[in-house]
Design brief:
The complex is a heterodimer.
Chain A (H helix, E strand, L loop, with lengths): L1 H23 L2 E5 L10 H5 L6 H6 L1 H9 L3 H6 L6 E6 L4 E13 L5 E20 L2 E19 L1 H11 L1 H7 L4 H8 L12 H5 L9 H5 L6 E15 L2 H11 L5 E3 L1 E16 L4 E26 L10 E27 L3 H11 L4 H7 L6 H4 L1 E22 L2 E18 L2 E18 L3 E19 L5 E5 L8 E14 H15 L14 H11 L17 E14 H8 L3 H11 L4 H9 L3 H12 L1 H5 L9 H14 L6 H12 L4 H11 L7 E9 L7 H11 L4 E4 L9 H9 L15 E14 L5 E12 L8 E9 L9 E9 L20 E7 L10 H9 L1 E10 L9 E8 L2 E4 L1
Antiparallel strand pairs in A: 1-20, 2-3, 3-4, 4-5, 5-6, 6-8, 7-9, 8-9, 9-10, 10-11, 11-12, 12-13, 13-14, 14-15, 14-16, 16-17, 17-18, 18-19, 20-21, 21-24, 22-23, 22-25, 25-26, 26-27
Chain B lengths: L37 E17 L2 E19 L2 E17 L2 E17 L7 E8 L26 E11 L2 E10 L2 H4 L3 E12 L5 E10 L4 E12 L2 E12 L2 E17 L2 E10 L3 E15 L2 E14 L5 E19 L4
Antiparallel strand pairs in B: 1-2, 1-16, 2-3, 3-4, 4-5, 5-6, 6-7, 7-8, 8-9, 9-10, 10-11, 11-12, 12-13, 13-14, 14-15, 15-16
The chains are: A alpha+beta, B mainly beta.
C-alpha cells in the first residue's frame, strides 16, 4: 500500500515537473556544418592538420626521439608495449635489427590516422679512429619496410568489433584492458595506440600481392613497401674545449654532443591506396638526399620510479635543455601516380605487374589517348621529378613535462611534371616553419607557417646547346606566392584566444572586428575567490588559488593569402621608408621613428642589429622572446626588393624569392607585405572552428564567455578579392596528399550528419512498472542511403566533464535506423539547400525500444545529468562520417544545450 | 559605529587556506577597499586513532589535537595573526610500555603589513615560516614525517613579498632560528622564493626556492609545481640539502601529492622519496559528514606504507582513522 502511494506521488511529481518542462521546451537541436567529401577545396587542401610531409622527411634525423616524447607519459606507461625493436649482433660492427612502430595522428575531421611500420635490415657501425682527437665514425643502416596506414574512428573500431566476433574482439582490446583504460584515463589516452595487436603483428604480411588482396583492403587504407637506407660519416666536434666548458658550467650528468655528419640517404617506395569499391591508386616514389648536418645536443635520458617494481625499467624521462640541428641537403625526388579500375582485365594485369615493381605496362597505357581509359581502366595521373636544395633548422628543448620545438625548412629547385595535359616545368621555393609547444597538462599547441612560390617555366636550349629556363606564365599558370598559417589548440583559455586573434590579425592584416570580445577573467569567479581568501593566512600564500583566464575549449584557425608576382613587384618598387614603416608596424614598434632611422642609421639601428646576434644563443634552446629583429629583416628585404624588379631570368627570380622567404619571423614578414599592399588586390581568407567545452556548474560569467567563444565557430573573413582556384602544380600536390596520414578523402558521396535533435517525452511506465522519461533522437543526414535503406549510426554517450580530463564513456553502440516519412519529421526546416537531398531518421535511445544498455539514460532523464552525445553515420558500416558532438543537460524533464 | 556581527559557518572542506578544515569568508567585498577593521577565528579539532606495524613491533595510539588560527585587522593592510597548535598522544603497547605526550606550540605570531590580495608589496615580522618550497603534505599532525627537516618550522624573523611582474612573485625572508633539530646549529637564515604563475588548467604555479645559513654550513634548493584543476590539486616538489662539511654528499627529497575531490568524498595520494633513506606511499579517503549543522565534520581513513632503505629493507605501515571538526567565524566593521 505504502509503495502504491509512493509510486502515485512519484508519478504526480514527475508529471508536474514534465508539465512544467513542456511549458518551456523539451527539444534541442544542433545543426552541423557539412561539406561534400567530393569537393576538395583550396581551403581543405591547406587545412589538413597532419604532420607535414616535407618537415617529416627533411629533418627526420634527430627529431624522432623528441617527437616520441611528446606523448611521453602515455608512451612510457602504455604505448611503448607496441613499439618494439630487436637487434641481433653478429660482430662489434654488424647487427641485424627489426622493429615494429605505431604512430597515431589526429586529423582535422576527428578520426585518427594509424600508421603501423615494420622494418628489417642490417646496421653497420665502425669506429674509424680519431682525427686530431675527435672521434670519427661510419654507419650504414638499410632496411626493408612495410607500412599499413589507415584512417580510424571509434565508429570504425566498433563496427569492426561487431564483424570480428567475440574472441578476436577480445584480443583486439587486450582482454578488455583497453576499454577499461579508456574509461579511467584522461582523453590524451588514445585507445587506437593499442587496438588490434594481432593486426599490428601481421603488418609485414599485409601488402597485397594481387588484385584480390588489393580489393580486400579497407576503403581509404594506404599500404606501402620499399627499401630505405642511410649512410653517414660522423665526427663529434665536442672536443676538449667544449668538454672543459661542460665541466665548468656543471651541467651535471647531461651529455653534450656536437656531431657533424656527411650523409646520403634514399628511399624507394610503392604505395597503394584503396579509393573505392573498384578503384585503387598506386604511387611510386624515389627519394635521394645528400648533404651535411651539424647538431648541438645537451641531453640525458633518465629513468624514474624504477625501484617501485622490480622488473620495471622505470619511467623514461628525457631532459634536453638544448636540441639544435642544422642541415643542408640536395634532394632529388620522383613521384608517379596511376589509378586502376580493377573491373577491367587490362588494368588488373598492369596493376599486378606494377605491384611487383614493373611499371612499364601501366606507363604504356598512360601514354594512350584519354578516351581509351574506359577501355583499359588505367588512369595515368602524373609523373613528377623534382630537384631541390634544402636548408633545415631544428630548435627544441624538453623538460619532460613541458616541451617546445621549432622546425623550419627552406627549399628551392626545379619540378618537372607530366600529366594528362602534357608536361610542364616550375621553379619552386618553399618555406615551412612549425612551432609545437606541449605540456603534460593540456597537450600540444601547433602553429604552422607555409610560404610557397611557384614559377611556371619552360626549358630551352641556347645556341651553345645549354639548357636555360624561360618564363612561361599565362592566366592559367601564373607566377604566384601563397602564404598559409594554421593553428590548432585543444585547450584554449580567454587569454590564448586573445593572443591567437592577435596573431591572425597580424598575419592577415584583416581587422577581424566581428570576432566577439571575451573578458579575460570572469568577474563572478573573481568575487568568489576574494570572498574565500580575504581572511586566509598570508603565510599560506603559496597554496592560494589565483584567478586565471577562463578555459573555453578547442580552437583551430587558418589564414591564407595569395600574392601575385605583379603585386610583389608593386610593393618592391615602393620607397624604402615604406618598407621600414611596414616592418615597424609588423613588429609593433614606432613606425615613424624607424622610417627616419632607415634614412640615417643611428644608435638604435646598430643596437637592434647587434641585439639580434646577442639573443641568438637563447634560440639554441628555442627561447624566441619578443626581440624584434627589425634591422636584420629590413636589410634582407631591402636587398631582395631592390633586385626583384630588375631580374627577369627565372633562376634569378627564384633566388630573390628565396632570399625574401628566408626569415625567422614569418608572421611579421607576411604582415609587412600586407601593410605594403594597402589598396592593391590581395586575396586573403581567415577562418576559425571552435568547440566550446561547457560544464554544468559554470558560473554565469564563465557561461557567457563560452557562448561568446562559440561564435568563433565557422567564422570566415575575407578580403574583397577571392582566393584563386587550385593551380596545376597544386593539383599534383593535392593528389599526393591522399597518401599522407589522414590526407585521403573519399571519392564517394557518403552520408554526413547535418542535424541532430533530441526530444524528451513525458514519463513512460514499461510492462515491468519501471518509470523513465523517453529520450528520442532524430538524425538528419545529407547524402542519405537510397530509398528506405537504413542509416548506420554510431553513438557514444559520455558523461560531460568540466575540463575534459576524463573520458567517462557511459555507452557505445552501433545501430541501424529507418528513415522517417515526411509527415513524421517534426524537427523543422533544415538549413540545407533544397537541391541537396537529406533524410531524417529516428531512434528511441532508452525505454523498451531503445539501445541495448540504456539504464544509465533512464536514470539520467529522471535524476538529471550532463552528457555528451558523439555521433557518426555511414551508409555501409565501413565508410564513416566525421564524429559530431552534442553536449546537453537533462534536468527536471528539461533538455538544455551546453 | 560598530557593525553587526557576521558569522559564517563553512560548509565544505576548504583547502584554500593550508590544511584548515573551515575558513572565514568575507561577506562584503567592499570591506577590502575601506579603512575599517575586521577579524577572523578558525579552529579545527581532530580525534584520531593510529595503528603502527613495523620495525618497532605493533602498537596503537590515540591522538587528539587542535589547531587555532586567528587574525585581527586594524585595517585590511595592517593585521596581527596567531596560529597555535596543541595536542596529546597516548600510545599503548610499545617496548617501553604506555606513553603519553603533550605538544603545544605557537606556530605563528606576526604582524602583517599589506594585504596579499591587494598590495604589490607586503611583509610580516614576528614568528613566521620562511618562504621556502611548497611543503604540501598528508597527515601533518597525525603522522611523523622523515622529510620534515627539508622544510622549515617557524622562527623569529621577517619576510617580504613583492610582485616582479603580473605573473611573477618574489619573496625574501630572514630569521634567527633556534630550531636545532632542523639546522643542527643556532644561526641566521636567509631564504628566497620565486613563484611563477601560469594559466594552465585553473592555475599552475612553478616555484623555485633557495635557502642558506649565513655561516654557509647548509644550503637548500627547491623546485616545485602546484596545479589546480577544479577542486583538485596536485603538487610536485624536489628539495636538496647540501652541507659545507660534506661536499660530496647531499640529502634529497621528492614528493608528489594529489587530491581528488568528488563531494562529499575526497581522496589524497602521496608519494615521498628520500634519497638513500626511505620512501612512503600514502592513500587517504575523507568524507564530509553532516553530524552537526554548525560545524563541518570530516571522517578520515588512511593507509601509509613506508620502506626504509637499509641493508635489510624495513617495512612499516600505519592505519589511521579519525574525525575532524571545524569552526570559522569572521567579524567586520559593517558600518564603515
Amino acid at each position: 500500500m505504502t509503495r502504491c502511494i509512493q509510486f502515485a506521488s512519484f508519478i504526480w511529481v514527475n508529471f508536474a515537473l514534465n508539465s512544467l518542462a513542456f511549458g518551456q521546451s523539451s527539444e534541442i537541436i544542433k545543426d552541423f556544418k557539412v561539406e561534400s567529401s567530393k569537393s576538395v577545396s583550396t581551403f581543405e587542401a591547406m587545412n589538413r592538420i597532419v604532420e607535414n610531409r616535407a618537415l617529416a622527411s627533411g629533418l627526420a634525423s634527430g627529431v624522432n626521439s623528441l617527437n616520441r616524447t611528446v606523448d611521453s607519459l602515455m608512451e612510457a606507461l602504455f604505448y611503448s608495449v607496441m613499439d618494439q625493436a630487436f637487434k641481433s649482433e653478429f660482430s662489434d660492427n654488424v647487427a641485424l635489427s627489426s622493429s615494429y612502430q605505431r604512430e597515431v595522428h589526429g586529423t582535422s575531421i576527428g578520426s585518427y590516422a594509424v600508421i603501423d611500420t615494420f622494418r628489417l635490415g642490417p646496421d653497420f657501425f665502425k669506429d674509424l679512429g680519431k682525427i686530431k682527437g675527435l672521434p670519427l665514425t661510419f654507419s650504414n643502416q638499410t632496411n626493408l619496410f612495410i607500412t599499413n596506414a589507415n584512417l580510424r574512428s571509434d565508429a570504425q573500431r566498433k563496427a569492426e568489433g561487431q564483424r570480428n566476433g567475440f574472441w578476436r574482439e577480445l584480443l583486439n582490446n587486450w582482454i578488455g584492458i583497453v576499454p577499461f583504460l579508456t574509461t579511467i584515463l584522461p582523453p590524451s589516452f588514445n585507445p587506437e595506440e593499442l587496438y588490434d595487436p594481432l593486426g599490428y603483428l601481421a603488418t609485414p604480411f599485409l601488402f597485397p600481392r594481387d588484385v584480390t588482396e588489393a580489393l580486400e583492403m579497407p576503403l581509404g587504407t594506404v599500404r606501402s613497401y620499399g627499401l630505405a637506407g642511410t649512410t653517414q660519416f660522423s665526427i663529434d666536434l665536442k672536443g676538449r674545449v667544449l668538454g672543459d666548458l661542460q665541466e665548468t658550467l656543471n651541467f651535471g650528468d647531461l651529455d653534450l654532443k656536437v656531431p657533424f655528419s656527411l650523409f646520403r640517404d634514399g628511399e624507394h617506395r610503392i604505395s597503394i591506396l584503396r579509393r573505392d569499391e573498384n578503384e585503387v591508386w598506386l604511387a611510386l616514389s624515389e627519394v635521394r638526399r645528400m648533404g651535411q648536418s651539424i647538431n648541438f645536443d645537451l641531453r640525458k635520458n633518465y629513468s624514474a620510479l624504477q625501484q617501485l617494481v622490480k622488473w620495471w625499467t622505470g619511467l623514461p624521462i628525457l631532459i634536453a635543455p638544448i636540441d639544435f640541428g642544422l642541415q643542408n641537403a640536395e634532394n632529388i625526388r620522383m613521384d608517379e601516380l596511376f589509378g586502376f579500375d580493377l573491373r577491367e582485365k587490362k588494368a588488373q594485369e598492369a596493376f599486378t605487374k606494377a605491384l611487383h615493381g614493373d611499371f612499364q605496362p601501366a606507363r604504356d597505357y598512360g601514354e594512350k589517348a584519354k578516351s581509351e581509359v574506359k577501355e583499359h581502366g588505367v588512369h595515368f595521373h602524373f609523373r613528377r621529378f623534382s630537384t631541390k636544395s634544402e636548408n633545415g633548422l631544428r630548435q627544441g628543448r624538453s623538460f619532460y613535462v613541458a616541451q617546445s620545438q621549432r622546425q623550419s625548412l627552406l627549399g628551392a629547385g626545379e619540378t618537372h611534371t607530366i600529366d594528362n595535359q602534357g608536361e610542364f616545368y616550375t621553379l619552386d621555393a618553399e618555406f615551412l616553419m612549425q612551432d609545437r609547444d606541449w605540456d603534460v597538462l593540456v597537450g600540444p599547441e601547433t602553429t604552422e607557417f607555409r610560404h610557397r612560390l611557384s614559377i611556371p617555366v619552360r626549358k630551352e636550349r641556347t645556341e651553345n646547346d645549354k639548357e636555360r629556363y624561360v618564363l612561361a606564365t599565362d592566366a592559367e599558370n601564373p607566377l604566384y606566392m601563397t602564404a598559409t598559417l594554421k593553428l590548432a589548440d585543444d585547450f584554449v583559455d580567454t587569454l590564448e584566444v586573445q593572443n591567437i586573434e592577435e596573431l591572425f590579425r597580424l598575419y592577415s592584416g584583416l581587422p577581424l572586428e566581428e570576432l566577439p570580445r571575451i573578458p579575460i577573467r570572469a568577474k563572478d569567479v573573481e568575487a568568489k575567490l576574494l570572498s574565500q581568501q580575504a581572511f586566509a593566512n598570508p603565510m599560506d600564500e603559496i597554496k592560494r588559488r589565483e584567478l586565471t583566464p577562463t578555459h573555453l575549449g578547442k580552437l583551430a584557425g587558418y589564414a591564407h593569402l595569395y600574392f601575385s608576382h605583379d603585386l610583389m613587384l608593386a610593393i618592391a618598387r615602393l620607397p624604402i621608408d615604406q618598407l621600414w614603416n611596414s616592418l615597424a608596424v609588423a613588429f609593433k614598434v614606432d613606425p615613424l621613428f624607424w622610417s627616419q632611422e632607415a634614412e640615417n642609421p643611428g644608435f638604435s639601428y646598430y643596437a637592434n642589429w647587434f641585439g639580434s646576434y646577442l639573443v641568438s644563443p637563447l634560440r639554441l634552446m628555442n627561447i624566441q622572446g619578443n626581440f624584434p629583429d627589425l634591422v636584420l629583416e629590413a636589410r634582407r628585404l631591402k636587398s631582395a626588393f631592390w633586385k626583384l624588379p630588375r631580374v627577369t631570368e627565372p633562376l634569378a627570380i627564384l633566388d630573390v624569392y628565396r632570399q625574401i622567404l628566408d626569415t625567422t619571423h614569418p608572421a611579421q614578414l607576411i604582415r609587412t607585405f600586407v601593410q605594403m599592399s594597402r589598396g592593391l588586390p590581395l586575396p586573403i581568407a581567415v577562418g576559425f572552428t571552435a568547440n566550446p567545452q561547457a560544464k554544468g556548474d559554470d558560473s554565469p560569467d564563465v557561461k557567457n564567455a563560452k557562448v561568446a567563444f562559440g561564435k568563433f565557430d565557422d567564422r570566415v573573413f575575407s578580403s574583397p578579392w577571392p582566393i584563386p582556384s587550385l593551380k596545376r602544380d597544386q593539383s599534383v600536390e593535392e593528389k599526393l596528399a591522399h597518401f599522407d596520414a589522414g590526407g585521403h578523402t573519399s571519392s564517394k558521396s557518403t552520408p554526413l550528419l547535418s542535424r541532430l535533435s533530441l526530444h524528451l517525452d513525458a514519463f513512460i511506465v514499461d510492462s515491468e512498472g519501471h518509470l523513465f522519461n523517453l529520450l528520442v533522437a532524430d538524425f538528419t543526414a545529407r547524402n542519405p542511403p537510397r530509398g528506405k535503406d537504413p542509416l548506420h549510426v554510431y553513438l557514444r554517450v559520455e558523461q560531460h566533464s568540466p575540463l575534459n580530463l576524463g573520458r567517462f564513456v557511459l555507452g557505445e553502440e552501433l545501430v541501424e535506423v529507418k528513415p522517417l516519412s515526411l509527415a513524421e519529421s517534426t524537427t523543422g526546416p533544415s538549413l540545407l539547400k533544397d537541391d541537396e537531398p537529406s533524410t531524417t531518421y529516428r531512434l528511441s535511445l532508452n525505454g523498451p525500444q531503445g539501445l541495448k544498455n540504456s539504464g544509465y539514460l533512464d536514470e539520467a532523464t529522471l535524476k538529471g545529468a550532463s552528457l555528451d552525445f558523439i555521433v557518426s553515420v555511414s551508409e555501409n558500416g565501413e565508410d564513416w562520417s566525421p564524429e559530431q558532438t552534442m553536449s546537453f543537460r537533462v534536468e527536471n524533464g528539461l533538455l538544455t544545450k551546453l | 559605529m560598530i557593525g553587526r556581527l557576521g558569522i559564517f559557518l563553512a560548509l565544505s572542506i576548504s583547502f584554500l587556506a593550508g590544511q584548515s578544515l573551515a575558513s572565514c569568508r568575507l561577506s562584503r567585498l567592499e570591506w577590502m577597499e575601506q579603512n575599517s577593521w575586521g577579524s577572523c577565528l578558525q579552529a579545527d579539532i581532530s580525534l584520531f586513532s593510529k595503528n603502527y606495524s613495523g620495525e618497532n613491533g605493533k602498537h596503537a595510539s590515540g591522538l587528539a589535537w587542535s589547531e587555532v588560527y586567528g587574525s585581527v585587522f586594524a585595517r585590511p593592510w595592517l593585521s596581527l595573526h596567531l596560529k597555535a597548535f596543541g595536542g596529546r598522544t597516548d600510545t599503548n603497547g610499545t617496548n617501553q610500555g604506555d606513553d603519553a605526550t603533550w605538544n603545544r606550540t605557537t606556530e605563528q605570531f606576526f604582524l602583517q603589513m599589506g594585504h596579499p590580495l591587494q598590495s604589490q608589496v607586503y611583509g610580516a615580522v614576528g614568528r613566521v615560516p620562511l618562504p621556502f618550497g611548497i611543503n604540501d603534505v598528508l597527515g601533518r599532525h597525525s603522522l611523523d614525517s622523515r622529510a620534515e627537516g627539508f622544510w622549515d618550522r617557524s622562527a623569529t624573523g621577517t619576510r617580504i613579498s613583492f610582485l616582479i611582474r603580473e605573473d611573477l612573485r618574489g619573496e625574501f625572508g630572514a630569521a634567527w632560528t633556534d630550531e636545532e633539530d632542523v639546522f643542527n646549529s643556532r644561526a641566521e637564515v636567509l631564504s628566497g622564493r620565486l613563484t611563477k604563475l601560469t594559466d594552465l588548467l585553473n592555475g599552475t604555479k612553478l616555484v623555485a626556492s633557495y635557502q642558506a645559513l649565513t655561516d654557509n654550513s647548509l644550503r637548500k634548493y627547491g623546485l616545485g609545481t602546484i596545479v589546480y584543476h577544479d577542486e583538485n590539486r596536485t603538487s610536485l616538489e624536489w628539495v636538496r640539502l647540501t652541507y659545507r662539511d660534506k661536499l660530496d654528499d647531499f640529502q634529497q627529497v621528492f614528493r608528489l601529492v594529489h587530491r581528488q575531490v568528488a563531494h562529499p568524498v575526497s581522496w589524497d595520494f602521496q608519494y615521498e622519496d628520500i634519497r638513500r633513506d626511505s620512501y612512503r606511499l600514502s592513500l587517504q579517503v575523507n568524507r564530509e559528514l553532516p553530524l552537526v549543522d554548525w560545524s563541518p565534520c570530516t571522517l578520515t581513513g588512511g593507509v601509509h606504507y613506508e620502506r626504509l632503505r637499509r641493508a635489510k629493507a624495513v617495512h612499516q605501515g600505519y592505519l589511521l582513522l579519525g574525525l575532524t571538526f571545524g569552526l570559522a567565524t569572521s567579524l567586520i566593521d559593517e558600518g564603515a
